[in-house]
Batch of 4 targets.
Target 1
Amino acid sequence: MTSCVGNEASLASTGNQKQLPTVEETVQDGNILLKINNIDSGQPQILQANENERLAALDAFLGFLKLQGKETKALRVARGLAEHTRKRLNEGKALVVYNSVNVAEMAEQPVTPERATAWLAKIWSNLEERLEERETGIQDFARQAGLSIYAWPRKTSGAGGAGNNSTYAIEFLKLPSANAHSPEIAPGGVAYVQDLTLKPAFWLKPLIRTGFALKGWRRVAFLVYGFGGLAVIGALFVLLWLALTTQSARIPSGDIATLILFAAVVGWLGFAFLSPFWRLIDLRIIMAPDLLLSLRERGVQLEAAKEPAGDGQHVRVIRLVRYSARCPKCGEAVHLYNGRREFPGRLVGKCDEHPAEHVYSFDRFTKTGSPLR
Ligand SMILES: [Zn+2]
């Protein structure tokens, strides 16, 4: 018992009160005694916690990469860096930076040392683009794991010239404070992350490069698109109707068929272009029309999100995003789909492996879902 008291006294002097076990615990449990020894030494304990959080951040980063499905070379490089860093941390070694030859080895790419720099330069710029699209998701993933930092691959350019000696490493960055709600996940439910914030198809890029904030001329453009489009379609139908009713006697039947076909095409185009507009206004988030996407992207949503505009006001931002989660039943990725007839007007999360059975609801605010089957 005396030893316990002694420990307690020395603990109090470290001032590290919140991690203190009670004296009873110390007596009952040898493990906790061991912990106290660590705390006694002060500095190492703080370092230890730091290492643990770094490890957890690397785990979160790797977990996020797993969610991405098919692995590109760029993501393979990121995974290699993260795995190698995790290995060093696990072995208690100090973190180091890597050169392009190291990175090529980690990514298990058959690149000769002479060509590694050129090879990685190309892959890295691709990786930076991929990471930029996924930054929110990587942060969300770390936040859901209860962390305050996240892992981020970083290139530090060397002096350049002949012996171009850029270095590569995993950095640990502080998570930006979110509009802090860490919602409860229902039993058996899922937590979604916004894993991708996409660049839209090339023809839309100049328009919604960083989200299409609805203010100024863009707000006007958005409304003109919706209401103007409706007016144009309406006017075309009125004209058609006038043409058919006032001159029907003089129009040959072949022309009438052409006119009706024309009307059908106009109606279909009107529906295709305008219904997303109205549904987006109505539902705030819809599956993105294929028209807006590059070919390689699927399962993407068009979201009209409310974002703080700095001066306490909010601005509505239209953006292309993809929400995904990990299926708690089988561990595969969950992506969003239209609820169709079974869940009208809703988006539901379906697991990639068992889409008929592993179905979850989707709440855009809490970013959680509960099982629907
Ligand atoms: Zn599943």
Note: Confidence is low (pLDDT under 50) at residues 1-47.
Target 2
Amino acid sequence: MKRINSLLLLLCSISMLSFGQFKLPDLSYKYNALEPYIDSTTMHIHHDLHHATYVNNLNKTLEKYPELYKKDLLELIQNINELPTDIQLAVRNNGGGVWNHSFFWKIMAAPGTAPMSAAMTKLLTDNFGTVDAFKAEFEKAAVGRFGSGWAWLIKEPSGKLRIISTPNQDNPLMSSAEIKGKPILTLDVWEHAYYLKYQNKRAAYAKAFWNVVNWTEVERLTGN
Ligand SMILES: [Fe+2]
């Protein structure tokens, strides 16, 4: 009986440890897949350490309110103002960090493997005049973001595409966002995303980014 109780206690502890906690998603490509534009070492540090830290910190933040582990991450960050006030900022920073990085990995692909289609070219041309004008405006948003943050291409509720940037780990889905919309494309402009290879040349990193955009995924996101 004592043995069964110990076993039950062990199983219970394991299930409590793993219950609903947020996990670090794997990359869908190899760490060196984005070379030479984004190097393997940066990808290891960025995914295995920075992204993982946001996941761990989010889980730690929610320890006090374990019922929140049952929520979808998107639901959490879209309703930050409805969370207990003592964890709102930590969920904004760490929940945002988890969501933004998971999204960022998905909109990139090995160079040349997911080129821009004619339909996507037309969509960008319709919204920004030319693809080059779109790229220039996006790069400007990336370079112009003071300190750390993200550049975004979003789809507004009207269907129009728009370029914005957000500070820290904020994103256009959050209840606190000044401009809301569906994320279509993003670029992480925190120094940890580029400093090893590009040092202080954020503009060069933003320009190189076009070589690793997964336009197939970006186009898919423009739907609905
Ligand atoms: Fe990052």
Note: Residues 73 and 199 are 32 Å apart (CA to CA).
Target 3
Amino acid sequence: MILFKSQELKAQFDNEITSTLRNLLYALAGFLKYTFGLDLEITSMVRYDAPVLIHWYKRAADISTQNFTPEQIQKTKDWINNNFLYGDIHHDSCIFEKAGEVVNGTTSTGDHLHVQTIK
Ligand SMILES: [Zn+2]
């Protein structure tokens, strides 16, 4: 099951993000439920606060890890990176970001997995 932190995020999921990202998120929701019995909770997707962020290009989503154990976070990150290649470029499709960490000028408000796609 996919949970959305806000109604705006649900609308972004349905209408704004790329189909490649949407397909990855559907697969991820299946993995989390099948493997750990966990729901996928999306806390952020499309953002215009920093143009350099992949969020601005509608190709990134942040997943809450509030209900995950450290082992579940690691296994989820590995599953995404092993199954979803970020094109031919050697970037990871999934990065764990801790609360308070500053990434590309934006401060993370809570522990999350940042997921991104090449298109
Ligand atoms: Zn992110």
Note: The helical segments are 7-15, 19-36, 70-83.
Target 4
Amino acid sequence: MSKKEDFSDIKILLTEMLEPSNKGEQNDTIEDEIAAGNSTTRNNNKQIDMNLAIKEIIDDRKIQIKNALERIENGSYGTCLSCGKAIVRERLEAIPEAIFCIDCQKKKERQAESMINLRDTFFPDQIN
Ligand SMILES: [Zn+2]
């Protein structure tokens, strides 16, 4: 907490992610982004499940964005929630709602992967 960083540009970024501005064109909503990423991955009979899953992802992301805005307000933004180090500016500009630094994010992803491997090993019937 040596010097206070200015996150006002990131705040604008986050606000626009949450509420796309009324400029007419709205190509950059989270909904479109996620839907586009998923559109080619599943066939039709899974569509309803996918839509639900997408909605959950969107809701999750909105919560993350709101949390990020709150952290900007209370001054804790830009600090890794896991190790307490500053998250690099580049990362915040790419993923404004990031709460972990790159190192911790990688660790979490590895943990998640090993959890999935464990689940597949012990509960193979639950794979869908
Ligand atoms: Zn960290």
Note: Residues 8-77 form one domain.
